[in-house]
Amino acid sequence: MISGKTKTLGIIGYSVEHSLSPIMQNEAIAAAGIDYVYVPLPIKPEDLTEAFHGIQKIGFQGFNVTVPHKVNIMPLLDDISESARHIGAVNTVIHRNGKWIGDNTDSIGFINSLKKNHIKIQDTNAIVLGAGGAARAVIWGLIENGIKSITLFVRNIAKAQQVVDLFSQYLTIQICDWNQKEQTHNYLKVCNLLINSTPLGMSSYNNQMPPVDWKWLAPDAVAYDLIYTPAITPFLKMAKENGHQIFNGEEMLIEQGIAAFKIWTNIMPDYEIMKESLRKILNH
Ligand code: NAP
Questions:
Q1: What pTM was estimated for this model as a whole?
Q2: Active site includes 70?
Q3: CB neighbourhood size of 281 (10 A)
């Protein structure tokens, strides 16, 4: 029950109407028996600074950040964690010792979903399709966990080069134009982990998928799509038809939420409860 003592968490974004986090986090809060509530906060891009000042005055314990505020929130905060700095985006903010600290749990969410499924990262070769914000979180997680090589398959080399430069002190990342099929073959045949970090495959993209020359992909490569609606994207369907083990973005979503919950409350939430709450909405 919400009382005068209830602590407040939330998610800022525009829009947040379809965010799954309020349901997932409130179910986890209820299961943990703690006096918190997690609320959606629709904030237009032009209102971010004012809204953040409001959040500070109201006394939030912390909040998630989604599109379009993940980068623009950064200069407003007192400190930024190492991972958020490397990724260049914040998805979780905590109010600790009077300071507002930005963190990013997408990276740990992605990595924990792999570890949970016993997918090896250390000394393996990954291909990441796309080079946006989610790709940066994936790349940082892979680097932190000892990946041997990362190649970006992209449509825009110049944009991808900026991402490669961000991580150049840790790993030399290759870039490949995904339309130059022959160039992609050398990378595909030694690939252990093929990750789609583009939105191609979401319902609004009309059954599209990034181009992959499937017959060249190493037979034991794992295919991972960060998208979770639909559960099986055309990319994952093709991967499955070609005999690959597949994963969608649902576990990453849960794991990033678990990491945020732990940051705010110091309590490990119930994974199954969070998964079940998501399943209920996604199946609906
Ligand atoms: P983003 O920053 O906009 O980056 C998207 C990337 O995909 C860019 O490299 C972009 O290329 C490329 N792309 C976009 N539209 C394309 C198209 N029509 N054709 C070819 N390439 C295209 O987006 P993001 O934040 O990285 O998110 C990417 C996906 O990851 C989304 O589906 C999102 O829902 C998902 N995601 C899932 C989780 C999870 O927890 N499971 C977490 C974060 C994100 P250009 O640079 O050339 O535009």
A1: 0.96
A2: yes
A3: 12
